[in-house]
């Protein structure tokens, strides 16, 4: 709300009054009404303030959405496909669940053993043996489980966060002590070369999807939020002899233009590996007719932005309906079951058929 006031006060000085006035009349009522503990009165006040704010800005604030041109867009088919973990993934997944930290997390809501009547996380079991609180462990281990669900080899990669890297190393020491063959293979070859689908249920399904797309001569955009996972997908494409292009945050601007042009115009290039955050920045992949979200972000808006930047793109400034796309667009989303409930709660689920892993 503060950013909204700043923008509008710069564009139309004085429209929303002073910052103090805006905070009292609009910002505070709206924010209070959006709290999960808001009373009915606060909800009503917040909605009323939102309507007044929308009316006040209506003459100056224009909103244009894709619903205005939905009749010009080609038909889009959304699918959600559930795929199980491989046997190796299941064992690793279960091993992570049996670690001391995860056991502490899973039991944190139970009554404390000291008979105080309080929950364990608020009493005698606030921290683990290393002094880390249960709250700090939640997201860390959820990230670990997400990596296992995506591809076991991701646990062997270096993390950008020192704290996360320490945690991953500790988990690996506990988990992979039971899998010496896997550890040895990791040492003998770089982790990126471990693109064998047996380490990932998603990879098995992806293999079938790409084979199907090759037969139909579809052009595929393969999105992944994790660039480490993008490395694995790249090695898989190389091992399978697929002609592909890759675009992520490290790709230079002039190289991006070249990649997009080659993908759109060259018939032999049927796959483009794209980082989700880099793919949502005005790239016109007008040649694609299949989108696969292999590794979604915690914020589904990032995925939708990447999709929409492709879906709503134009060619040579022409209207969207003149872009030579096939009549049917196939969109496949690959997610893990730990993330799916969060995505569902953050947006109305538009994907009727999506790929997800579950143990």
From TrEMBL:
Cytoplasm in keyword set: no
Family: Belongs to the SNF2/RAD54 helicase family.
CDD domains: SF2_C_SNF
Protein name as catalogued: ERCC excision repair 6 like 2
PANTHER family reported in the protein's UniProt record: DNA EXCISION REPAIR PROTEIN ERCC-6-RELATED (PTHR45629:SF7), SNF2/RAD54 FAMILY MEMBER (PTHR45629)
Pfam families: Helicase_C, SNF2-rel_dom
InterPro entries with a match to the protein in the record: Helicase_C-like (IPR001650), P-loop_NTPase (IPR027417), SNF2-like_sf (IPR038718), SNF2/RAD54-like_C (IPR049730), SNF2_N (IPR000330), SNF2_RAD54_helicase_repair (IPR050496)
Source taxonomy: Eukaryota, Metazoa, Chordata, Craniata, Vertebrata
Domain Helicase C-terminal: 205-359
GO MF terms held by the record: ATP binding; helicase activity; hydrolase activity
Alphabetically ordered keywords of this record: ATP-binding, Helicase, Hydrolase, Nucleotide-binding
Superkingdom of the source species: Eukaryota
PROSITE patterns, A to Z: HELICASE_CTER (PS51194)
Organism: Prolemur simus
């Amino acid at each position: 709300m503060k950013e909204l006031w700043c923008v509008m006060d710069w564009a139309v000085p004085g429209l929303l009054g002073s910052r103090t006035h805006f905070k009292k009349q609009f910002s505070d009522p709206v924010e209070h009404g959006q709290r999960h503990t808001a009373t009915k009165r606060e909800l009503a006040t917040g909605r009323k303030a939102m309507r007044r704010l929308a009316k006040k800005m209506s003459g100056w604030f224009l909103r244009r959405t894709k619903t205005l041109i939905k009749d010009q867009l080609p038909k889009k088919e959304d699918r959600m496909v559930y795929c199980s973990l491989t046997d190796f993934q299941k064992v690793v997944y279960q091993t992570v669940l049996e670690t001391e930290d995860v056991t502490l997390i899973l039991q944190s809501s139970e009554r404390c053993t000291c008979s105080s009547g309080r929950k364990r996380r608020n009493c005698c079991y606030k921290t683990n043996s290393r002094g880390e609180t249960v709250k700090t462990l939640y997201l860390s281990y959820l990230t670990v489980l997400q990596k296992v669900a995506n591809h076991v080899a991701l646990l062997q990669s270096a993390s950008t966060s020192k704290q996360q890297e320490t945690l991953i190393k500790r988990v690996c020491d506990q988990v992979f002590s039971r899998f010496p063959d896997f550890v040895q293979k990791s040492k003998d070859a770089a982790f990126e070369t471990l693109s064998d689908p047996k380490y990932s249920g998603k990879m098995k399904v992806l293999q079938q999807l790409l084979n199907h797309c090759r037969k139909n001569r579809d052009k595929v955009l393969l999105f992944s939020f994790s660039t480490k996972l993008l490395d694995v997908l790249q090695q898989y494409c190389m091992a399978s002899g697929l002609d592909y292009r890759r675009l992520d945050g490290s790709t230079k601007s002039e190289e991006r233009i070249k990649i997009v042009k080659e993908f759109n115009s060259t018939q032999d290039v049927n796959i483009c590996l794209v980082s989700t955050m880099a793919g949502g920045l005005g790239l016109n992949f007008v040649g694609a007719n299949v989108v696969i979200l292999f590794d979604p972000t915690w914020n589904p808006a990032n995925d939708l932005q990447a999709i929409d930047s492709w879906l709503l793109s134009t060619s040579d400034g022409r209207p969207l309906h003149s872009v030579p796309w096939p009549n049917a667009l196939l969109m496949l989303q690959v997610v893990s079951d730990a993330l799916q409930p969060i995505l569902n709660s953050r947006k109305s689920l538009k994907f009727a058929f999506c790929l997800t892993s579950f143990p």
